[in-house]
Amino acid sequence: MKAVCLLSGGLDSATCLAWARRAGFDSYALSFDYGQRHIVELDCARRVAQALGAADHRVAKIDLRVFGHSALTDEIAVPKGRDEAAMNHGIPVTYVPARNTIFLSFALAYAEVLEASDIFIGVNALDYSGYPDCRPEFIQAFERMSNLATKAGVEGITSIHIRTPLIDLSKADIVRLGQELQVPFGLTHSCYDPDATGKPCGACDSCLLRAKGFREAGVIDPAGQ
User: What is the DSSP annotation of 103-155?
Assistant: First the structure.
């Protein structure tokens, strides 16, 4: 069975890729160079794809900086040192407009070319920093649309399923699952605002959520984040 797996190089997407491997899928990893300031994640994605035996790994280059309006693609400060209450209040400036919709659209095109029925994405509805495109309602709607929007779907060649094995897990649960699946945590990167050498800032929402997950899971983070 073939599947397209969205792979950012972060903890969640790496665990999702490992889950797909255990489920018996030949995984075609897809990453994006979209103008993000944390470009170091693409090097991590390449190493993770290789370590987890992806059948192929492709990087699609698109430039979401033409729209901006996100701290990840524009000259907007990445929030630092926020507590859990602040993270759970509203949609943060690190939200990239329509990012998962765009990424899943590319994955859908790739899946149609591969004649694959499954697309994996490591979204999470609990520790998700308020992003609207990580919610189950969005995933369900995109899956319905996928089967209306493709030649393969209309002709009944294949039926697309958007797989979200991490959707109901806390970050600690994801760490535990990743450990069970032998995810190479040390190869992953989660920081929104690394320095020029790729060193994590340790204070952005993503760094804090990652640290919280490892701490609550009782696991040492080999990446030192």
Answer: HHHHHHHHHHHHT--EEE----SSSSTT-GGGSHHHHHHHHHHHHHHSHHHHT
